[in-house]
Specification:
The structure holds two protein chains of two kinds. By secondary structure, chain A is of the alpha/beta class. Chain A contains 29 helices and 18 strands. A six-stranded mixed β-sheet of chain A has the order 4-5-6-15-14-18. A four-stranded mixed β-sheet of chain A has the order 2-9-12-13. Chain B is globular and about 60 Å long. The two termini of chain B are about 25 Å apart. Classes of the chains: A alpha/beta, B alpha/beta. The complex binds iron/sulfur cluster (2 copies). The site of one iron/sulfur cluster (SF4) has 13 residues of chain B, from helix 1.
């Protein structure tokens, strides 16, 4: 158990990065080495076969009040023994109660207002209280050369610099990485021990293989695919022991593992051997997928509402192009797809890149087919649009081409880009509500925003006046989140530097600067903007009914909204039927949507984070569109109080919005203003009279058209509403039913009820 | 058994080609996107308004007449009464189940604008070819990637022969395949010259073989229709697919279906589309103030389906 390592033996306070390195070294060195007979990979993330990771310096402490109920709660219960409970309650949590990111930041900034606002849960959710790890390391380098060269490099650099701070950085790197080698060594010893106990020919062979592999990796470079995957797994364990398992992502694994696959293949002589090898590879990758589920993210009960059913979102990226712009689709791509199809599990979160014109039609069709069979995964991205988007905000073309999905859908340049792509979930609707109420949030019932004018006092003679008020509230709220994020970022520099992760990046070693200090090449922060559809539909209602057609006045509309449209049925009906909605591909609505996107992009992009990078916006929501919805009043869009917002930037399921018009609408938004990506959910219900082939063809046609029109990302839920309703009633029959929430996968039956209903009601297209 | 009430009425309008000058407009009820049932792939359906036949079971009653109509959907109405205020001739009565007095109504359409619920709707307006072409082209990639296209439906699209000719020529130039659904009552000479070169598929209704039955249930005999069908077989290589609307008690008599099967067989045709009866149209008809001529409320039962399958057992009947 971590005890802090705050001081060395002489009682001198250790620099934070050294403290972290020592702690990690200690944990990995003392970690129980576990190898299972039935697993193809040695090592476990926690000290059990499957465990919950507790990071007391992060959000671990949120579990404190729930320690007694955690084993019996309805959603995602955790088993906990009495000894562990005692330990956490009496020793661990008390020690860490002021040594975590949230409390450190609070004390350092004298309980700032932005943090108070954060804790209302209504306005934004700051992921830095949990993790900073939404990124992708440079695994190809470590897999190829091993950790020893990195340790040697750190030693050499340490001896050539004079600066104490720099020396400390290199020492920390060395100490942290040596911890990983200790762990690998203990696993090797365990393999030998098990080998000695086991029968010859059978299990003994199995353990010998581990012992042989661990003799080599991760210290040195992998020679075979098997070694590469084992090495990757140990690195992955180490990274998750250093920093929270929330969104840290695995990268472009098909591209990265293909060289090992090819070199293995070259050594094989007969077709039979090659066939067997492919089968073993499928099994190996399958094992890896299962291993990725051996750790569960810690979620307190409120979190189940906010991030319902979310796993730790370890994204894997497939396909697209390589850094030279050639197709990256290879044998391993199809092996990963096969495994995805066979296992239908929520994590790793599969993301496939498709570059129109460079990747083949067969590949896209296969993606759609796997999506159909699994009913939810992989999510499909338009490589061309994403690369253009990244280029437009000053990523080098060669770098942009290497982008990998991170967490849900967000792009990271592996090993170069520390972009905390999910630094915050930003509720744009709260800004709209405050602009309707002169800065008062109707549910929080207090003056949160600035005073931008009262509808009752006729403060908005024109629609432009109102839009301006909305923009000011949006900016105000965004600046609160930015200040908050920056303060948590500074806290991370003190509380949780990341020596291991830093060693797997370009930049930190050269600059002797941790990732949290801005050591990487690219240093952005990513924002998830929530509620675009609700905002656009609301603004459109105001523009059309109040200003253009004068069918109602603003005061009446405001009263109706305040009263949740009770006694305003006529107005509510009018809004639902006579105002063009986002997703109907109406030019005026499209322009307004783009204007909102541009506005929020500019507000964030023009601010700098604590590492000197830009803030990049995206439009996806995990499950926060439901959580924020339950904390919001009625809206001029006609959405009633407490109802979920629409997920990501998916249009509302209403009159005038059909599948093709919503596809055109979303494809028409400019990717360069949404660099942190989008989540566009399409629920399709296949017609039982159509064959599998016909359905795949039809859905492929939707996807292809969408990408040709410029759309960035789409994810299909291929399932009937009847199935979902039945699953709500008979959850036991549907344990494996996967659904896309907004950017990530979840088991439907594990979701919170509100979220289940939201998914059932999503726009459904018959295919 | 179904109760069938027959009312004879000859079509007054429109006459062939009268609405069809080059560059002219066409009365269209609606465009339906993402249709997957009327021809291959993803399609856009264009519903033309106006038809020379008066089938008693007409499934698209809003497309019978070639003039704009006022449609009322009671399910959507929230009884706010705004329409009553707006109607100058006083044709609306909230207490009348039919709601609109069609004798008094001048079809000024003022009530539509005030109706908040969409319960009152205009059925049909004039479109130019430019407008329809632009609407269709919005979904062009979807057609291309699904081998889909456009289907002209109705009503009877050939009522607007010149309009269609211009539109389908433009679509052909743009690479969008076009299909037509027709009742078959048109001037073959014009059809061959103005339309046939631009079409990719013809879905041709065959309702009866007996001309007296045809006259009784559709208001017109089928001599021209069947002749046009046979001519198409000679004149074109594109698929001409016969479609039989299955109307229980009317077209589904054994005698009629057997004679249709024989007729198709004589013409060497092996593929037929059988359109199952859908009773949901009856409400639509009432909403337009049309009197119901046939109101079976049930879908077809198993026995009926088995009998029909047996008769067409030598044909490719697709997904029927
Ligand atoms: S205006 Fe529309 S909703 Fe109101 S009573 Fe008339 S038809 Fe019904
Ligand atoms: S169309 Fe004109 S006349 Fe007819 S009901 Fe409406 S308002 Fe009255």
């Amino acid at each position: 158990m971590k005890t802090g390592f705050e001081h060395d033996r002489e009682g001198t306070r250790r620099p934070p990065i050294l403290r972290q390195a020592q702690a990690l070294n200690y944990i990995l060195t003392n970690k129980k080495p576990l190898i299972r007979t039935n697993s193809m990979l040695a090592g476990t993330t926690t000290s059990r076969d499957v465990g919950v990771m507790i990071y007391p310096e992060g959000h671990g402490i949120t579990l404190w009040p729930e320690l007694k109920t955690i084993a019996t709660r309805k959603i995602q219960p955790y088993d906990i023994d009495e000894h562990t409970r005692e330990l956490l309650d009496k020793k661990v949590f008390p020690f860490w109660s002021d040594r975590n990111v949230r409390e450190y930041a609070r004390a350092a900034n004298n309980s700032p207002r932005y943090q108070e606002l954060d804790e209302k849960f209504v306005l934004y959710f700051m992921w830095k209280t949990v993790a900073l790890s939404h990124t992708v390391p440079d695994f190809p380098r470590i897999l190829k050369h091993g950790l020893l060269p990195v340790i040697e490099d750190a030693e050499r650099r340490k001896n050539t610099v004079d600066d104490e701070r720099q020396k400390t950085f290199y020492s920390a790197t060395e100490i942290a990485l040596r911890g990983i080698l200790h762990y690998a060594d203990h696993l090797r010893e365990e393999a030998l021990r098990l080998m000695a106990k086991a029968q010859k020919n059978g299990p003994a062979e199995h353990y010998k293989r581990f012992a042989d592999m661990l003799e080599r990796v991760p210290a040195s470079g992998a020679r075979t695919l098997y070694e590469a995957v084992q090495s990757l797994w140990i690195l992955w364990i180490a990274l998750h022991n250093e920093s929270t398992n929330a969104g840290l992502s695995l990268g472009h694994l098909d591209l990265w593992l293909q060289p090992y696959f090819e070199s293995d293949m070259q050594g094989l002589k007969t077709d039979r051997e090659r066939e067997d090898y492919v089968k073993q590879t499928i099994e190996l990758i399958g094992n890896f997928f299962f291993k990725c589920q051996d750790h569960v993210p810690l979620v307190a009960d409120i979190g189940n509402k906010l991030f319902g059913g979310s796993s730790s979102d370890q994204a894997i990226t497939l396909g697209g192009v390589d850094k030279n712009g050639s197709s990256a689709v290879n044998d391993m791509t199809y092996i990963f797809l096969k495994v995805t199809e066979m296992l239908t599990i929520r994590d790793p979160n599969m993301n496939a890149r498709y570059y129109p014109g460079i990747n083949s039609d067969d590949y896209l069709r296969r993606l759609v087919e796997v999506n159909m069979v699994t009913s939810a995964t992989p999510s499909i991205h338009n490589d061309k649009a994403m690369i253009q988007s990244l280029k437009s905000i000053q990523f080098k073309e060669e770098d942009a081409r290497q982008w990998c999905a991170t967490g849900c859908v967000e792009p990271t340049i592996p090993g170069k880009h520390f972009g905390h792509t999910n630094s915050m979930m930003f509720n744009m609707v709260a800004a709209l509500e405050m602009s309707l109420n002169n800065g008062v949030h109707p549910l929080a019932e207090e003056q949160i925003g600035i005073k931008t004018g009262s509808i009752e006092e006729d403060a908005f003679p024109t629609f432009e006046d109102f839009f301006h008020a909305f923009e000011r509230q949006l900016r105000f709220l965004a600046y609160q989140t930015i200040d908050c994020n920056n303060s948590f970022g500074f806290a991370h520099q003190v509380i949780r530097p990341t020596p291991t992760l830093s060693s797997m990046f370009e930049g930190p070693m050269e600059k002797a600067k941790d990732l949290t200090e801005g050591g990487a090449v690219y240093n952005t922060s990513g924002v998830a903007c929530i509620g675009l559809t609700d905002i656009v539909d609301s603004l459109m209602t105001i523009k059309k009914l109040v200003y253009d057609e004068k069918k109602t006045d603003f005061k009446t509309l405001h009263k109706a909204v305040d009263n949740n449209f009770e006694d305003y049925i006529k107005l509510h009906t009018l809004i639902q039927n006579k105002v063009a909605k986002f997703g109907s591909d109406t030019p005026e609505v499209n322009r307004l949507a783009q204007r909102v996107v541009d506005t929020v992009f500019d507000i964030f992009y023009n601010r700098t984070n604590y590492r000197g990078g830009h803030y990049l916006v995206g439009f996806w929501s995990m499950s926060n569109h439901v959580a924020f919805g339950t904390l919001s009043g009625a809206l001029p869009s006609g959405r009633l109080r407490y109802k979920p917002f629409t997920p990501g930037l998916t249009p509302e399921n209403v009159k005038g919005v059909d599948l093709l018009s919503s596809i055109r609408t979303i494809a028409g938004l400019k990717p360069e203003k949404m660099p942190n990506n989008i989540a566009f959910n399409v629920k399709v219900a296949p017609d039982s009279r159509d064959t599998h082939e016909e359905t795949v063809d039809q859905i492929t046609a939707y996807a292809k058209s969408y990408f040709e029109l410029g759309g960035m990302q789409m994810q299909f839920n291929i399932v009937t509403t009847e199935t979902l309703k039945d699953a709500m009633e008979n959850p036991d029959n549907y344990r494996n039913l996967l659904v896309r929430v907004s950017g990530y996968n979840a088991y439907f039956v594990e979701l919170d009820k509100d979220l289940q209903l939201e998914i059932v009601n999503r726009q459904q297209m018959r295919v | 058994m179904t109760t069938t009430k027959i009312r004879q009425k000859l079509p007054k309008e429109p006459q062939q080609g009268t609405h069809a000058m080059p560059g002219a407009q066409a009365m269209i009820v609606d465009l339906k996107r993402n249709s997957l049932d009327d021809g291959p792939g993803i399609r856009t359906l264009v519903f033309f308004k106006g038809c020379p036949l008066r089938c008693v079971w007409c499934h698209n009653p809003e497309t019978k007449h070639a003039y704009p109509e006022l449609a009322f959907d009671a399910k959507l109405c929230i009884s706010c009464g705004d329409c009553v205020q707006a109607c100058k001739p006083g044709a609306i009565d909230l207490d009348d189940p039919k709601r609109i007095n069609r004798q008094t109504c001048t079809r000024c359409m003022e009530c539509i604008d005030v109706c908040p619920s969409g319960a009152l709707k205009r059925a049909g307006r004039l479109y130019t070819t430019d407008e329809v072409f632009a609407e269709i082209m919005k979904d062009e990639p979807f057609y291309r990637y699904s081998s889909g296209g456009v289907t002209f439906s109705g009503g009877e699209p050939t009522v607007y022969m010149h309009f269609l000719s211009e539109l389908s020529a433009r679509l052909k130039a743009a690479g969008v395949p076009a299909a037509i659904e027709t009742c078959g009552l048109y001037n073959h000479g014009l059809f061959e010259k103005l339309l046939l070169p631009y079409l990719d598929m013809i879905l041709f209704d065959i309702k009866f073989i007996d001309p007296f039955m045809h006259k009784k249930y559709t208001g017109s005999t089928n001599t021209v229709i069947l002749r046009n069908f046979v001519k198409l077989q000679e004149k074109t290589d594109i698929p001409v697919i016969p479609r039989v609307p299955l109307i229980p008690g009317i077209t589904t008599t054994e005698e009629n279906l057997v004679s249709i099967a024989n007729f198709l067989d004589r013409n060497g045709i092996k593929k037929v589309e059988l359109l199952s009866y859908n009773p949901l149209w009856t409400e639509k008809s009432a909403g337009l103030g049309h009197e119901l001529d046939y109101d079976r409320k049930k879908f077809m039962d198993k026995g009926e389906i088995v009998m029909i399958k047996q008769i067409f057992k030598d044909f490719d009947t697709g997904k029927f």
